[in-house]
Each structure stands twice: as C-alpha cells, then as structure tokens.
Amino acid sequence: MRQLLLDTHVALWALSAPDTLTRRVRTFIEDPRTTVLVSAASVWEVEIKRALGKLTAPAGFAGECRKHGFDPLDITFQHAEAASGLPQHHADPFDRMLIAQAITEGLDLVTSDSIFKSYDVRLLAAQ
Questions:
Q1: Largest CA distance in the chain
Q2: Residues with Cβ < 8 Å from 108, sequence gap 6 or more?
C-alpha cells in the first residue's frame, strides 16, 4: 500500500485540474489501495492565502479534500520538532512542515517544487 502526502498545490490541482498531474500520480491517487493525505498545514496555507486575496481556491478546502477521499494529517509535536531541525534550504514554513511530516511518517511527498530535492525526503513528481 502506498501512502502519499500531497503538497498544497498538488491537492488543489487534484481537486480542480487533475489533468495537470502526471498519469502516474493520478493513477496512484485514484487507486483505492493508496492512502492520500493532505496536511493541516495545507489547509492553513490555503485559508490564509485566500483571506489575503492571494489565492483562488474552492470554498471549504478541507471539506473538498474529504469529499475526494483524502485523509487529514494533523500536525504533531514530533512534526514541529522535525521541521525546526531541517536544513535551511527553504524558508517557507508550510513547505518545511510538509517535508517534516513526510520524513517523520515515511510518506511519499507529491510535489512539483524542485527545492524539495534539497531534503532527504521521498518525492514523487507531480508534473
């Protein structure tokens, strides 16, 4: 069984523009044997950016994720400590949390963000 953690932009694409994703990623997401996770950090990021007018996203992003069968991934103390210990390759706190969660939980992180390659995290290319 495969466990995927979707980067925020990947979760948005999966909801509204799935053809943006590679066929491989779409196949994994659609496979009922795959656990697809969306972090509370992604929900937080979407809602903050929507409130600031920097992002157009579906109303009720968390609910839309649930409707599509994505499971929530809460932020734990262990995730927070892991994020603080990551090398400073990247300053985005949301991305750093996703990387820490993927490492801590042993998940494949689905992204198109090339800076993630600077970290020791299992990646799956979204595009």
A1: 38
A2: 2, 3, 4, 5, 102, 122, 123, 124
Question: What pLDDT, on the 0 to 100 scale, is given for residue 90?
Answer: 83
Query: Does 106 have pLDDT greater than 90?
Result: yes
Question: Cβ neighbours of residue 74 under 8 Å, at least 6 residues apart?
Answer: 40
pLDDT at 56 over 90: no
Report the C-alpha gap between 63 and 41 in whole angstroms: 15
Q: Which CATH number fits domain 3-125: 3.40.50.1010, 3.30.450.40, 1.10.287.3510, 2.60.40.1730?
A: 3.40.50.1010
**CB neighbours of 41 closer than 8 A, spacing ≥ 6?**
8, 75, 94, 97, 98, 101
Cα separation, 77 vs 65, in Å, equals 24
The residues spanned by each domain of the chain are 3-125
The whole-angstrom separation of Cα 53 and Cα 101 is: 27
